[in-house]
Each structure stands twice: as C-alpha cells, then as structure tokens.
Design a protein that fits this description.
- This protein has about 400 residues and is of the alpha/beta class.
- It has two domains: about 1-190 and about 365-385, Glycogen Phosphorylase B (Rossmann fold); about 205-360, Glycogen Phosphorylase B (Rossmann fold, 3-Layer(aba) Sandwich).
- The chain has helices spanning about 15-30, 75-90, 105-115, 135-155, 165-175, 215-230, 245-255, 270-280, 295-300, 335-345, 350-360, 365-380, 385, and strands spanning about 1-5, 35-40, 55-60, 70, 70-75, 100, 120-125, 160-165, 180-185, 205-210, 235-240, 260-265, 280-285, 290, 305-310, 310-315, 325-330.
- The chain is globular and about 65 Å long.
Amino acid sequence: MRICVVYDCLYPYTVGGAERWARNLAERLAQEGHQVSYLTLRQWDRGERVELDRRVRVLIAGPRMALYTGQRRRIAPTLRFGLGVFWQLLRRRRSYDVVHLSAWPFFAALAAKAALLGTPTLIAVDWHEVWSRRYWQEYLGRPGGAVGYALQRLCARVPQSAFCFSRLHAARLRREGLCGPVTVLEGEYAGSLQAPTARPAEPLVVFAGRLIPEKRAPLAVAAFAQAAARLESLRGEFYGDGPEREALLRAIEEHDVAEIATAPGFVPAARIDAALRRALCMLSTSRREGYGMVVVEAAARGTPSIVVAGEDNAATELIEQGVNGLVVQSADPAEIADAILAVHRAGMDMRQSTAYWFAENARRLSLESSLRTVLESYGSHDPAASLGGAGARG
C-alpha cells in the first residue's frame, strides 16, 4: 500500500509519546514492504541526514519553526503546517491509499480532507487525547479555548478511521460526534515482553516525566516528603526537564528534603531504567495523560505504580488496584503518601503481582499489537465506501 504518515514533529528532534508512535508506525509499515512517506515540518539543519529508516521518504510541509512559546503550542507553526499539508497532498492527491495523521494540530486533518476530497484515500487519525471544553479554556483562556474546542469538534466530524489509546478518550471522541469508526489501541510499549523477575526494592520513589504544570511535580515532592517523615531511609529521584523545573527545585527546598531527594534533569534512558528496576514505586501525580506509558515501563521491571485519579487521566486504566499499583482518588499529598507507605508494606507480594500482571498483559500492551491492528484496519478499508462518505459509527 502507499501510505503517508503526517505529523508536524519527528522523533528524536522532538520527544514525546505521539512522536515515538508516529515514527514507529512509519518504520514498521516500511518494514512490512509498504511505500511510506513521512510528511512533517523540517526540524533539522539543511543538508543534515534525517534520522529515520532509509525506506521512509521524508516530505517537508514547512520550514523549521519553534513549536512552543513557554508551555503552549504556537499558532503560526500549526497554520503553516496545515497549509503545507494541503499543498503536498493536493499535488499528490492520487498517490496514496492511506493518509495517517495525528488529530493535533487540527488544521492538518482539515487540510487533508480538503485536499483529498473526491478520492478513495482512507484518512486515519490518531487521537492521543480529546480535551474537554473546560480544559481548552484552562489552556487557552475563554476566547482561545472556545476556538480550540470548536476545531476539535470539527476535526471529529471529518470522515475518518479513528484510533484512540484509552477508553476515556474514545468515549469522549464519540460524544464529540465522530464521523467514522474508533478503535482503541492498548499497546505502545516497544520494550521486551519477557516477564520480569520480582526482586526486593530499595526504599526509593521515582518520578519521571516532562516538567510541565499538568505533571504536578511539586505535588509529588510534597507527597514524598510526608512519606519520608514516616519511613526512615526513604529517598526520591525526580527525573525530567521542562518549564516547571524551577518549581520542582523550589519544592525540594521548601519541604526540606534536599538531602534525600535529587532532580538530575534530563538523563539517558538507561539511567531511568536502572532507577525503575530498584524503586519501591513509580509515582505519577499527573492530572492529564492520554495513555500513561511510564506505568507499563515500570511494570515491565516489576515495579508497581501510584497514579492520581482525574477526569483527564487515562493512566488509571493501566492500574489494577492492589495488583500492579494503586490509584489515589485525590491530589492530597497525605493520601498519596499513604499510598507510598501501603506499597512499602505490601513488599514482595505487590512486586510479584506486578510482574505477573505484566506477563499476562504484555502482548496486549505491546507496540506490535497496536501496529498489527492498524495494518488490519487498512486492509479492511473499502475505497468505494470512502467516496460516498462515512456514517457515524463507533
């Protein structure tokens, strides 16, 4: 098949779960023998060799641009990317059997539909998250949030084959009036599927994530500090970088845990891997997750996780309460500290049940499982049906 993967970012030039997924998708499709193009914004110096499987053709939809201002996406690059996608697909409107893109930025999906109107090309869309109206207003303010929410709803109404990575966001997408079927892809884990061996843990709490307000790293420090006051020798390691790094460092000082907590910033993956293997638990205080990969990564090392429930947090779907971790129902540092101590008391029993949980679910949670599901969905596509438009199905 002739497939074009469309995303304005390309891993490793920008780092994130969506970037990893898009790159893995493109390379896996190429390995299967499909003709694959990757349409993106240029994020590298002119003349530089792009870090991507040589079998994947890279197409440029626009120049190198800063994607973020502070903690938010800039509008100009999303508009420029949308225009570039429209032009590139219009020029090649009969060249692809499938155009597979990320819902965000929304202008790209709308541009793709406009450029491919009247062709049998399947439009497949990854919805890593579907934001509520309230969250849009928090993110962009009332006027900007209203526009963002309206664009999200409009994008949902583009006839498409939709993919979500959690039941939470699949349900939201249906409520937004999705035009087309939605498939939940449960797997994004690309590591070894071999069952881990449960080993005794060190008295160590690990936090790992991009330091943005939604991750609530200062809350993790506050909870750790309360747990450390009750559990002698407990230590904390807080990995990650981002705009909230200074807030993280202030929290460590304010809670007087500088002697038992470290925040080394961005570190090689091998160091985080080693920390997770020996940790008592992985602590995630994030209020917003489209999937929660770190929960699976911790379980793959026999380490249980603690996550905080929230209306935008799909990571709770990866926790079987008391088996591979705990879900805390409120963002109260005392309750989170209680959970840390509960995992400590559970000892090897929870570490063994976490290892069993991963062994039982590894194949379902694997990247290969999701990629296979996507490939099967391409194969079941009826080109004639797309010419007549798709009905609302779920």
